[in-house]
Amino acid sequence: MNTKYCRDCGDYRPVSEFSKNARCRDGLAFYCREHLAERSLRSREARRTKPRVKRLPPPALVIPDGHKWCGDCGTVKSMDEFVRTRASRSGYGSYCLPCHAVRCRANADKRGGYRTYHLSRRYGITAEEANFLLERQGGLCAICKSAPAAHVDHDHATGAVRALLCFNCNGGLGQFKDNPEALHAAAYYVAFHTARQEIAAELAAAAHPPEGASRPGGPPVGSQRRPGARATGTRNTGRSSGTRRRTQAGEADP
Ligand SMILES: [Zn+2]
Ligand SMILES: [Zn+2]
Ligand SMILES: [Zn+2]
C-alpha cells in the first residue's frame, strides 16, 4: 500500500488519507486530511485575530533611483543589497539581505530547524520523518543493510519517499534507471557467470588431476579446498574463486 508520512501523526498514513496539492512534489498535501483541517482552522483563526499589514515607506521619504526601502530595518539601501526574486515585479525582494537572512532563519526555526528546512526543500521530508526512517532501518541502508543510510530515495515517477539508502546502492539504482527488470537481469548475470566459472574449474580439475594427488578425486596437495567440499555453483564464494582454483590446478582458460 502506498503511504506518506504525516508530521502531525508522526507516522505513515495511506495516501488516500491525503488531499491533493499540486504545489507539493508528490502532488499530495503535506499533512493528512484530518491534521490539514485542524491546521487550516488554526491559521484562519490566527489571521482573523491579527491581520497582516503591508509595510510602506514613510510618505516623506525620498528614495533615489536604484535604491529600495527595507520594510524590516527601515533603511534605504542600494538595489544590489536586496535579495533577487522572480516572485516580485521589480525582481527584488521586500527586505535587504541581512533582514532576509534573519527572516529565513526565523521561518526555518518555525518549521523545525535548518535540518528540517533543507531536508524538506531537497527531499520533501522533515527531520522527524528522516529520523523515523533512520530508526526503523536501524541506521542502515534498506538494500545492502550494511552501509549507513545516507540518502532519501524517491520513486522518481511519483515523487513518493521509498526509504533511506547508502551512497552506493542509491547510485546503483540510478545507473539501472530504477528498472526492476534490468536489476533482476544484472543479479542473474553475476550469479550465472560465477557459477559457470566454478563449474568449469571443477570439470578441468577432474579431467586433469594434478600430479601428487593423494587419491583420485581427492583434493590436490597444498590445495585450500576442504576434503569432500563440493565446490559447485551452490557454494558461492565470490567472483574470483573459480579463477583462483583454476590457477592452483595449473589449468589455462579453455
Ligand atoms: Zn496526520
Ligand atoms: Zn533591512
Ligand atoms: Zn546500501
Q: Write out the strand line-up for the largest beta sheet, numbering strands in chain order.
A: 1-2
Low-confidence stretches: 225-254
Mean pLDDT: 79
Outline type: elongated
Which secondary-structure class do the elements indicate? alpha+beta
Quickly count the domains: 4
Measured as a percent range, the helix fraction is 25-40%
Radius of gyration (CA) equals: 32 Å
How many helical stretches?
A: 7
Helices and strands in order, then pairings?
Elements: E1 3-6, E2 11-14, H1 33-49, E3 67-69, E4 76-78, E5 82-84, E6 92-96, H2 97-110, H3 114-123, H4 127-136, E7 151-154, E8 161-165, H5 167-175, H6 180-207, H7 241-248
Antiparallel strand pairs: 1-2, 3-4, 5-6, 7-8
Helix pairs in contact: 6-7
This protein binds zinc ion (ZN) (3 copies).
Description:
This protein is an alpha+beta fold and 254 residues long. The chain folds into four domains: 1-53, no CATH class; 67-107, no CATH class; 124-178, 3-Layer(aba) Sandwich (His-Me finger endonuclease fold); 181-248, no CATH class. It has seven helices and eight strands, in the order ββαββββαααββααα. It has a two-stranded antiparallel sheet. Strands 3-4 form a two-stranded antiparallel ribbon. Strands 5-6 form a two-stranded antiparallel sheet. β7 (151-154) and β8 form a beta hairpin. It is elongated, with a radius of gyration of 32 Å. The protein starts with a strand and ends in a 6-residue tail after the last helix. Residues 225-254 have low confidence and may be disordered. Bound molecules: zinc ion (3 copies). The site of one zinc ion has 7 residues, from α1. Residues 141, 143-144, 147, 165-166, 168-169 line the site of one zinc ion.
